[in-house]
Amino acid sequence: MTDPLVLRRELVEAARRLDAQGLLPGPSGNLSARLDAERVLVVPSAVPKGRLQPEELLVVNLEGEVLQGIRGYKPTSELPMHLEVYRRRPDVHAVVHAHPPASVALTLAGISLTEAILPEAVLLLGEVPTTDYATPSTPENQAAIAPWIEKHDVILLARHGSLTVGRTIDEAATRLEVLEHTAKTLLWAYMVREPSKLPPEAVAKLHAVRESYGK
Ligand SMILES: [Zn+2]
After folding, report:
1. Distance 71 CA to ligand 1 centre (A)
2. Measured in angstroms, how far is the CA atom of residue 66 from the centroid of ligand 1?
3. Whole-angstrom Cα distance, residue 60 to residue 39?
4. How many whole angstroms from 167 Cα to the centroid of ligand 1?
């Protein structure tokens, strides 16, 4: 088990790093990390992530009950979605939900990231499915990600945002950064013309490389 104080610091540092890149504006977005098999560290609702302090994080169980936290603080409204990930993916130790603008723009335009276009994105993100529309800040998102989360580390929520998971907080945060970078590159390409897809044999090679990484 990771030292809870170290984990609190790592989660706050990741939140500040993502906020500095404009990926968590205002109170939007939320992060969590697994403390152990039964408990999760999660950000409070409505606190801007750029000003988040380690002691402001709440400890909840996998049923969403608050076990520890500052009086008056509530967990993020997207907690049910985070807990769905931890229940279905014992290998996952961190979850990041954000509203990355270029990635969300792709969902608005009906452009899917399941098609392999950029080789680095295939290697680092794998296939990125887009869920059906679900109302933000409600348990609908928990149901929307359920069909995808067992086989994917990066998911787009239609008209809303992203869900990235990882074995560490850094891995989940990095996947969000790579996702948004990929989406920006695709949007630039689409400004000129529809980009071509990678041939199937090139995609098969990339998946073989990705599997050799242990993913
Ligand atoms: Zn959201």
Report:
1. 24
2. 21
3. 6
4. 22
User: Which is the CATH superfamily of the domain at 4-212?
Assistant: Class II aldolase/adducin N-terminal domain (3.40.225.10)
Query: How confident is the model over 98-122, as pLDDT tens digits?
Result: 999 999 999 999 998 888 889 999 8
Please tell me the distance between residue 98's alpha carbon and the centre of ligand 1 in angstroms: 6
Tell me the pTM: 0.94
In this predicted structure, what is the pLDDT of residue 1?
A: 59
CA of 80 to the centre of ligand 1 (A): 12
Q: How far is the CA of 27 from the centre of ligand 1 (A)?
A: 10
pLDDT tens profile 46-60: 899 999 999 999 999
**Domain positions in the chain:** 4-212
Q: What percent of the chain has pLDDT over 90?
A: 85
Query: Around Cβ 59, how many Cβ atoms within 10 Å?
Result: 17
Distance 162 CA to ligand 1 centre (A): 8
> For residue 201, what are its two tokens?
């044999």
Distance 153 CA to ligand 1 centre (A): 17
State the distance from the centre of ligand 1 to the C-alpha of 68, rounded, in angstroms: 24
